[in-house]
Amino acid sequence: MTDRPIDTDTYALKSRALAEVEAPDLPYRPPMPRAYRPRIGMIGTGGISASHLDAYRAAGWEVAALWNRTRAKAEERAAEYCPSASVEDHWQRVVADDGIDVIDVTLHPEHRTPIIEAALEAGKHVLSQKPFVTDLDEGQRLVKVAEDHGVMLAVNQNGRWSPHMAWMREAVRAGLIGDVLSVHASIHWDHGWTAGTPFDEVRDLVLYDFGVHWFDFVVSLAGERVESVFATAAMARGQTNRMPLLAQALVRMEGGQASLVFDGAAPHGARDTTYVAGTRGSLESEGPDLGTQSVALTTGDGIARPRLEGTWFNDGFRGAMGELL
Prior knowledge:
Strand order of the largest sheet: 1-15-14-13-12-8-11-10-9
Number of domains: 2
Number of strands: 15
């Protein structure tokens, strides 16, 4: 038994005043190819396609062709975002177009695997909407197809290029907080708008379609240190959605841990917080929603609060395509 006295302030978890220090300049903005200007073909022009097209227009990338099962939707998107693009009656024509370099597939997972495979075999680079596949073996097979044909295959993990996630990731990569010990995200919002939409048929909607951004964030920090994941989902009292709006996950990693909490049934007082603890410092981001976040870096030198530019929508989408290019 030690004779070391107990520090009552430490025992009570009291914090101490910290000096405000200048935030480091980190490369968190979405990547842009220096000279490569590919022509993009989009297959699927549903709701999320507007964010893709708006981001590409802002970046100056040409969308050359569109296809959608309902032609009128493709025509509407073309008129608003890319008037010079052709609207095709068959997705195979977009894939076969020798003037198109990249195929952006925004369809739901159950519809896009044969399209992704055909595009890869045609020598096109492919950006797939997330979540990538419903079966891990199928995903690994598509990666092999891309490798065999010498083309790039990427997933539209747009959250990794949201300003707050990107800055925190780059801070970790720069070694500013040392080794990552824990990552904790807590998201509270109203996902009830999905009731009666095609999303209402997606099994494990919150974890699978929405929460995938935070799983990606944890992996971007911890990499191969992740050892196991345990997750649960539950129906919220009074919810009208068919799929659970409440979910959580515990991630065990070598020398650390992570937790993800998703409360998709919180119509009032939305909140989004992320905390990353390291051996030399910590990172925290908080705000009322995904697009309004304040980040703080705390180390032995003090606390730094970077002034971040951009928004998740639609800088995140520009980053996903830019990372591929």
